[in-house]
Amino acid sequence: EAQVTQNPRYLITVTGKKLTVTCSQNMNHEYMSWYRQDPGLGLRQIYYSMNVEVTDKGDVPEGYKVSRKEKRNFPLILESPSPNQTSLYFCASSYPGQGRRELFFGEGSRLTVL
Amino acid sequence: SQQGEEDPQALSIQEGENATMNCSYKTSINNLQWYRQNSGRGLVHLILIRSNEREKHSGRLRVTLDTSKKSSSLLITASRAADTASYFCATADNFNKFYFGSGTKLNVKP
């Protein structure tokens, strides 16, 4: 089954404790991206990656890091989480290019930073 | 910001009625897409319309795009209770960035 898998789905942590949210896709997609969703703000793009070893900042990259060492994985790293990073996070993947650009989303990771 | 805005923010209708949601965006686009999100779940792609298209249909969905007004609309005909969800428009630029609106929350009453 084609899917994007995120882990963990729920996490409560404390300020400053480094954490990683993993994302893996089995569709051989070249494009992967991370979003955060906050009430009233919709989804905002954090980082995206066009292919292995190629990453770019989205609209709200501050406080986050990403890496793309393998095509299927695109982890989101919070080096020193703060309460304003409490949010619902989504990973998504897609084929790049103009012909087919719909995003396939994971089920989300709800993060609370105390 | 290129972020789109949906209108209305919330919409409540009876089953069988049509639901229309609008989206406006700010800069030039490559394509515009509509997504659906059931409460707290991942978004699911509904339909994509390219910048050189004006209208597109998929089942009970009809999407229009007016690039001169930088706006799009999503029409769901003969709505069902199962259509209850939030709907988002998203635009993609030529630099592979996606921009989402804040969504329309649709409630279809049985």
Rg for CA atoms of chain A? 13 Å
* Gross morphology of chain A: globular
Estimated structural class of chain B: mainly beta
Span of the ends, CA to CA of chain A: 36 Å
Strand portion of chain B: over 45%
Largest interface: A-B, 29 and 24 residues
Uncertain segments of chain A are none
Shape of chain B: globular
Largest sheet of chain B: 6 strands, mixed
**How large is the radius of gyration of chain B?**
13 Å
Order of helices and strands of chain A: EEEEEEEEEEE
How many β-strand stretches of chain B?
11
Low-confidence stretches of chain B: none
The helicity of chain B comes to under 10%
Please supply descriptive tags for the structure shown above:
heterodimer, A: mainly beta, 7-stranded mixed β-sheet, 4-stranded antiparallel β-sheet, globular, B: 110 residues, 6-stranded mixed β-sheet, 5-stranded antiparallel β-sheet
Could you explain how this protein is built, in words?
- The complex is a heterodimer of chains A (114) and B (110).
- Chain A has 114 residues and is mainly β.
- Helices cover 0% and strands 50% of the residues of chain A.
- Chain A is built from no helices and eleven strands.
- In chain A, the strands form two sheets. In chain A, strands 2, 4, 5, 6, 9, 10 and 11 form a seven-stranded mixed β-sheet that branches.
- Chain B has 110 residues and is mostly beta strands.
- In chain B, the strands form two sheets. In chain B, strands 2, 4, 5, 9, 10 and 11 form a six-stranded mixed β-sheet that branches. Chain B has a five-stranded antiparallel β-sheet with strand order 1-3-8-7-6, with no helix packed on it.
- In chain B, a hairpin with a 2-residue loop joins strand 6 (55-58) and strand 7 (61-66).
- Chains A and B meet through strand 4, strand 5, strand 9 and strand 10 of A and strand 4, strand 5, strand 9 and strand 10 of B.
